[in-house]
Every structure is written in structure tokens, then in C-alpha cells.
């Protein structure tokens, strides 16, 4: 049986995972990597949409690509980065289908998603998203999220942080020669995580590589239905910068907590100022109505 016939048989039975296994080797990224996982997720979403809409994957009509783009726009609204990512995944899915000799044309070739300005790109998580991540996380996961979102730790710092770096009595954490205060939520999360451990290793998290950290966060984002993007760790730190500034309104203090030069905090603080201005504008409009 040819790969094309096997693929068609899987689709006819509604076995999307079996169909995906046939084309997975031709998707971007190394097996098990975040890139491969993201593209598999996008391919799965495309196959499920086509199945629900009774559209042929093997024989896409001229409106196939535009119809999927309309579906993504309806689903994600103003989240243009999510639409663009799913379009890329769909395009890669058909590249994999072509490489597997299942189809010969790509209905997403040349199809462009919505335009967006660079300054509108998402940089930090919202408070609601942080809360949702924490709600769906284990004690370990909650500690990881809040160390990024409330203490502003970088990816390498999250992987390297040790229990001896944490002063529960003083409610501080010391990393890379900077002392950062623990929020009440972070202190409680670390205490619960620390108490619940049967055996304690030197480090808080068993994450030997940056890829392992990204995959841990990606899984949590999927569980909480929170945007992941390609820079989730930076998004946590961006939230931390906004949070520190909201508490202290001191650029130099924020820079010291984040371990960056003052000038490098400018973009984070600019995002914070823009968000607050938009919130104020929204409130004014609401009251005006």
C-alpha cells in the first residue's frame, strides 16, 4: 500500500494520529523538540478542522486555504501571532504531505495572514494568564512559573536555582549576585513545593537543558490553554518587569531585580505604560457609554 493510500485510509477511519505518524518525519524540527511538537499540534488542528468541515485534505479546492484562514481569524480574533503560527504550521503540513508523495500542491503557498505592527507583538503574559498557568500547574510547575513571573529569573537561572539560594525566613532569593524579594504567592508556592518533596536534590528542577525547560512550559501552556509562542520564558520575565515597576515605579530597582542595565528595561516599561494607557482609555470609554 502506498503512503498516499495509507494516509487516506487513516483519514477515512478518523485516525488522525495514524495519519500524522506518516508525515511527521517530514515536519520541521527534531523528533521530540518543541519545534516538532508545535508543528504536530498545528497539523493536528488542520486535519481536525478539515474533518469537521468535510473538506478534502488530499484534494483541496481553490478556497481551502482562505477558508482555513477565516476559521483561524474567527477563533483567535486579534491574536495575529497565533494566526500566523497556525498558518505556518498548515503550510509545513502540506510541505510534509508533498515530501511524503501524498499530494502535489500546497494550498497555503503564498497565502498571507493578517498584518501587524512590531510594537503590537505580545511581549508579556497578563495577570489572568499567569493565574491560569498556576491553577493548572503542579507545585513544581507553579514554583517554576512564579520564579519567572514574580522573581524575573532567566531560563538558565530557572534551571540552575538551588534550594540554598532561597531564604525562606527573609523571603528572598539570591541569583547571579542579586537579591530578589519573594512575593507572598511565590513564597507560598515554594514552601508547598519544598514541603511536598519526598527527597530533595540540590536544584529545584530537574531540567538539564533549555529544551527541557521550554517543553515543560509548552505542556503547561497547553493544559491551561494559554498562549505559548516562541519566547514563553521572556514573556514571564516581561511580566515580572511590569509587576516590579507597578509596585515600585523605580526603573533602576527594576533593572537590578532583573539583572539588566537600566536602558534594557525601557521596552518592558514602555509596554507597561502602553498597557496602562489602554486600560485607562477603555475605562474612560466604558464610563462614557
TrEMBL record:
Residues 120-289 form the Tyr recombinase domain. GO terms for molecular function: DNA binding. SUPFAM superfamilies: DNA breaking-rejoining enzymes. This is Tyr recombinase domain-containing protein. It comes from the Bacteria. Keywords: DNA recombination, DNA-binding, Plasmid. Gene3D superfamilies: 1.10.150.130, Intergrase catalytic core (1.10.443.10). GO terms for biological process: DNA integration; DNA recombination.
Amino acid at each position: 500500500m502506498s503512503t498516499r493510500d495509507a494516509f487516506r485510509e487513516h483519514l477515512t477511519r478518523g485516525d488522525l494520529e495514524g495519519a500524522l505518524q506518516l508525515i511527521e518525519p517530514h515536519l520541521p524540527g527534531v523528533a521530540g523538540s518543541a519545534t516538532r511538537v508545535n508543528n504536530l499540534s498545528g497539523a493536528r488542528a488542520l486535519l481536525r478542522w478539515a474533518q469537521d468541515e468535510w473538506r478534502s485534505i488530499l484534494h483541496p479546492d481553490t478556497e481551502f486555504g482562505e477558508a482555513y484562514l477565516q476559521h483561524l481569524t474567527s477563533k483567535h480574533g486579534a491574536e495575529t501571532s497565533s494566526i500566523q503560527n497556525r498558518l505556518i504550521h498548515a503550510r509545513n503540513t502540506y510541505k510534509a504531505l508533498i515530501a511524503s508523495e501524498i499530494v502535489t500542491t500546497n494550498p497555503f503557498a503564498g497565502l498571507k495572514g493578517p498584518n501587524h505592527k512590531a510594537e503590537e507583538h505580545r511581549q508579556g503574559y497578563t495577570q489572568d494568564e499567569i493565574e491560569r498557568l498556576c491553577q493548572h500547574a503542579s507545585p513544581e510547575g507553579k514554583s517554576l512559573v512564579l520564579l519567572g513571573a514574580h522573581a524575573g529569573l532567566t531560563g538558565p537561572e530557572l534551571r540552575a536555582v538551588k534550594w540554598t539560594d532561597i531564604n525562606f525566613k527573609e523571603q528572598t532569593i539570591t541569583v547571579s549576585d542579586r537579591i530578589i524579594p519573594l512575593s507572598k504567592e511565590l513564597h507560598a508556592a515554594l514552601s508547598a513545593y519544598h514541603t511536598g518533596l519526598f527527597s530533595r536534590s540540590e536544584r529545584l528542577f530537574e531540567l538539564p537543558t533549555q529544551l527541557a525547560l521550554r517543553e515543560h512550559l509548552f505542556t503547561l501552556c497547553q493544559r491551561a490553554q494559554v498562549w505559548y509562542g516562541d519566547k514563553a520564558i521572556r514573556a514571564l520575565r516581561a511580566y515580572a518587569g511590569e509587576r516590579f515597576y507597578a509596585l515600585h515605579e523605580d526603573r533602576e530597582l527594576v533593572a537590578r531585580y532583573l539583572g539588566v542595565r537600566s536602558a534594557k528595561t525601557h521596552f518592558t516599561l514602555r509596554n507597561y505604560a502602553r498597557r496602562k494607557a489602554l486600560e485607562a482609555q477603555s475605562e474612560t470609554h466604558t464610563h462614557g457609554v
